[in-house]
Backbone:
């Protein structure tokens, strides 16, 4: 079949650039370095959802050191995995991570097709395509935010996101080669992360500067266009940080479903758009701190007032002993609360 648009040549140009400039990442096999481990590809892709490479590197190292294989992760205790995930956010990912690991362990190995991968818990269209391409060299179209930006500029597409998603995916499919699809998928993502950046793209050194329609028209810095997001509402809540005389901390495990699901944290009121009812989890001399935690979730801003108390030894509830307590095991929101409250409790 004739390649009238030069898409094959463009893929070859990008792969040649990638061979010289590929980012060194802990989950990645370098160009020509052999077959990628599907466990490491899957784990990195799940961690990278809604998160930056810089934030993920340390988590990935800890996970793969503690659980080197998917079978090791499948055998892990839920609480241990949630503690290691603490601070990475979007905790449904961690719960699905365990479900998926156990499903893969039960099957014996990862499926090697996009369709098979997408049947696993927590694996959607993007992640299944990425694993199939990178770990199994399947010619799948992999589209993340970086790829969307590159495609919008290459084709000078002005339809705003999110309506543009299927259009940009179709563009990406045109360019995806049958040869080295895994390297190609990573190459486009690297191009978006290092050259075709959201602001001030480095068009002068881009391997695709020639065929880039947006560079030619001068619209590259303005793409992709996006529909303005509505302002996030503010919710309010109260967190109760209590400590016994022996140094143990009063904590609770949040329900599996919902924000911060399955994680360990301080007892809290509901998070509402109006002032919450001040109902402590147990009887004690609770004091209000002249400080509040401010934290932003995907759909709202949270302002969390703090109450602290020294608790009697016979206080009911779930306590974590002082020598077993590590703030790093808490989600970021709860760590912020601990940092403000600890001095008031002699910690």
Residues:
């Amino acid at each position: 079949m004739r390649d009238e648009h030069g898409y094959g040549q463009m893929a070859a140009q990008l792969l040649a650039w990638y061979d010289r400039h590929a980012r060194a990442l802990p989950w990645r096999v370098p160009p020509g370095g052999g077959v990628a481990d599907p466990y490491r590809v899957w784990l990195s892709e799940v961690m990278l959802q809604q998160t930056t490479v810089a934030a993920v590197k340390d988590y990935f190292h800890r996970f793969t050191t503690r659980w080197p294989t998917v079978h090791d992760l499948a055998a892990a205790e839920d609480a241990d995995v949630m503690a290691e995930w603490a601070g990475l956010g979007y905790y449904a990912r961690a719960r699905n991570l365990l479900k998926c690991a156990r499903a893969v362990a039960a099957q014996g190995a990862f499926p090697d097709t996009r369709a098979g991968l997408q049947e696993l818990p927590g694996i959607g269209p993007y992640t299944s395509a990425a694993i199939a391409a990178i770990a199994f060299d399947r010619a799948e179209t992999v589209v993340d935010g970086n790829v969307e930006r590159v495609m919008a500029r290459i084709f000078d597409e002005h339809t705003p996101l999110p309506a543009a998603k299927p259009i940009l995916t179709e563009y990406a499919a045109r360019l995806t080669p049958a040869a080295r699809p895994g390297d190609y998928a990573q190459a486009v993502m690297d191009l978006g992360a290092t050259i075709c950046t959201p602001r001030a793209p480095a068009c002068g050194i881009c391997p695709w500067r020639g065929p880039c329609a947006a560079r030619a028209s001068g619209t590259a810095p303005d793409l992709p266009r996006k529909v303005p997001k509505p302002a996030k509402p503010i919710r309010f809540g109260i967190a109760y940080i209590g400590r016994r005389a022996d140094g143990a901390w009063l904590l609770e495990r949040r329900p599996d479903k919902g924000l911060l699901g399955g994680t360990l944290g301080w007892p809290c009121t509901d998070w509402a758009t109006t002032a919450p009812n001040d109902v402590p989890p147990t009887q004690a001399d609770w004091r209000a701190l002249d400080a509040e935690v401010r934290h932003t979730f995907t759909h709202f801003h949270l302002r969390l007032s703090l109450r602290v108390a020294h608790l009697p030894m016979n206080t009911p509830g779930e306590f974590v002993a002082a020598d077993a307590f590590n703030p790093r095991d808490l989600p970021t929101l709860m760590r912020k609360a601990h940092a403000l409250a600890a001095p008031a409790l002699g910690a």
Notes: The chain has two domains: 7-222, 234-345.
